[in-house]
Specification:
Length: 333
């Protein structure tokens, strides 16, 4: 651990870190997301490029990496192991158990598989990926799932427990059976459902918010023009933000955000990340498929936006989010 709560690996950049929930685990405000590393639901992903990208993220100072058993049936976890196993002691691994593995013995077995895939003997943060019953899975009492997670924690196989895609009510229920140190919702300037209830609760109870789709699956980078179409097999084709009036409003908002980014000498993507990590309790999970993208994401942690810029960005974002419905799920699957 470096001075001022920062982590520095040999030959890498240094990034100031934050405590995960109530733990002593230090996480970087920008977290490397690796859904795309699993290949499934993505198009044009190359394993060698994935490995180089994860390595580039770590070299740029990102010491926290998020994955899940369901990302390519463990393929994402395996790619992380191939990329950075030599630096394991300097890194924080976050993985997840899927909604079809929430019975007590299934949680234990899933964790063991993830440990094997990641080539490690502990996972720093282990999360319930989706609430029980999601995607037509069998409903399992949260008490049973939490009992397994508490056992894994006591055994030293995991260091902290988190949940993902949980409502406030589901988070409160889970917290009755053990300490929850993080929640992982979809959260970006263009998708702000987490602010409605989760954020206040997390601030009050010292729970970290690990925002996924923090750049609205690339929309906030400004890379996609008004007529963009995703190829078959790309999950983003089902993202509500890429359709109809929502997409048109997003394009208009991006036009208003560009001068703010230019004034701060950063990209649109960096602006979106810098705004997000300035929100209460919030770290941003940012995926990347090329090393240059990982480096660019990491540099967003160095940006301090003025109060005026933060307020302007907030208002511009609402021109998109005020027109969305109350469904917290981003996709139309």
């Amino acid at each position: 651990m470096g001075e001022n709560g920062s982590v520095e690996a040999e030959g890498t950049a240094k990034m100031k870190t934050r405590l995960l929930g109530s733990t002593t685990i230090q996480v970087t405000p920008i977290i490397m997301g690796t859904w795309q590393a699993g290949k499934r639901w993505w198009v044009g992903i190359d394993d060698a490029e994935t490995i180089h990208t994860i390595q580039a993220a770590v070299d740029a100072g990102i010491t926290t990496i998020d994955t899940a058993e369901v990302y390519g049936d463990g393929h994402s976890e395996q790619m992380i192991a191939k990329a950075v196993s030599a630096q394991r002691s300097q890194l924080v691994y976050a993985s997840k158990v899927f909604a079809n593995h929430l019975k007590y013995e299934q949680v234990i077995e899933a964790c063991d598989h993830s440990l094997q895939n990641l080539q490690t003997d502990y996972i720093d943060l282990y999360q319930i990926h989706w609430p029980t019953g999601s995607f037509d899975t069998e409903v399992v009492p949260i008490a049973d799932t939490m009992a397994a997670l508490n056992h894994l924690k006591e055994a030293g196989k995991i260091r902290a427990i988190g949940v993902s895609n949980f409502s406030k009510a589901q988070l409160v229920e889970a917290a009755q059976y053990g300490r929850i140190d993080s929640v992982q919702p979809p959260y970006s300037l263009f998708w702000r459902w987490a602010e409605a209830e989760l954020q206040v609760y997390c601030v009050e109870h010292q729970i970290s918010i690990l925002a996924y789709s923090s750049m609205a699956q690339g929309l906030l980078t400004g890379r996609f023009g008004p007529d963009h179409q995703f190829p078959e097999g790309d999950n983003r084709a089902g993202n509500k933000l890429f359709h109809g009036e929502h997409y048109q409003r997003a394009q208009q908002a991006l036009d208003r955000l560009r001068p703010i980014a230019e004034r701060n000498h950063i990209t649109l993507g960096q602006l979106a990340l810098a705004w997000l990590i300035a929100q209460p309790q919030t770290c941003a999970i940012a995926g990347a498929r090329h090393p240059e993208q990982a480096q660019e994401n990491a540099q967003a942690s160095d940006q301090t936006l003025s109060a005026t810029d933060l307020a302007d960005i907030d208002q511009i974002g609402r021109t998109v989010t005020d027109h969305l419905d109350d469904d917290p799920v981003m996709w139309t699957w």
